[in-house]
Amino acid sequence: MKKTILDLNRMAAAGERITYLTAYDYLTAKYQERAGVEMILVGDSMGMVTQGYETTFPVTMDDMISASRAVRRGAPGTFVVGDMPYMSYQVSDEQAVENAGRFVKEAGCDAVKLEGCTPSIVQRVRAIAEAGILVSGHIGLTPQFAGQLGGYKAQGRTAENALKLLDQAQALEKAGAAMILVEGVPAIVGKAITERAGIPILGIGAGSYTHGQLLIYADMVGMYDNFTPKFVRKYADVGAELLRGFTEYCKDVKEGRFPDDREHSYKISGDEAAKLD
Ligand code: KIV
Ligand code: NA
């Protein structure tokens, strides 16, 4: 049965921790759904993870729609959140609703996510929710605001800033957000936000008290090695396995051990083969 917002609300209310990972393609999504992952974020982190950019800024709506479609095909029963890329919602409510609609209409996403909590972002959340689309807020370390934050820095590390995050969570909830992602804050700040919330709070690097836990999949399976944040635990070493497989393939081809003509080649009858002589 396909996961809905009602399932997420029920899990959050029951204290059943929600599992959440990013994915950007069909195969990864398929393995995640098989493993029991309940939510998938098609994150604009795909800019770094699958496109090799240094930031999320260059990612386009078309990139996100294409990736979201692939993820949906791989994980038809999972709650899929489409991440609104830079400048796909900042300009106006109309732009935000139109692009949020594309995630639902063209890619079959269950919800969209947008970053920040400035007055205009709160307005965007309200506009998208009023269009009937589930919206996830995203506060704390918000990469699309990296310029203003002075880089990818943990947030909520002063009482003043932590209180501001609490206010932001409440403002987003009031505006109609269906859930909020909290990124890069101390555990007690994640706890305070979660305790005050009436909607599911998902955390990434926000401690153990949030209703759900998100990680960038390529970090936790040891594929993305340019940089690993403090909050990541490595559950597999897929990068090392890929390197081993690719290296052995190169060696076998160079040294004539692959392919093996009995094992990896198509058959032709002796009669037909004789005609080739
Ligand atoms: O794009 C993404 O993957 C995200 C998470 C890192 C929070 O927004
Ligand atoms: Na993102």
UniProtKB/TrEMBL annotation:
**Cofactor requirements of the protein:** Mg(2+)
GO molecular function terms noted in the UniProt entry: 3-methyl-2-oxobutanoate hydroxymethyltransferase activity; magnesium ion binding; methyltransferase activity
Q: Does the keyword Cytoplasm apply?
A: yes
Q: What is its EC number?
A: 2.1.2.11
Identify the catalytic residues.
E183
Q: What class of enzyme is it?
A: transferase
- Kindly state the subunit structure of this protein: Homodecamer; pentamer of dimers.
Q: What is this protein called?
A: 3-methyl-2-oxobutanoate hydroxymethyltransferase
Q: Which organism is it from?
A: Sporobacter termitidis DSM 10068
- Classification lineage: Bacteria, Bacillati, Bacillota, Clostridia, Eubacteriales
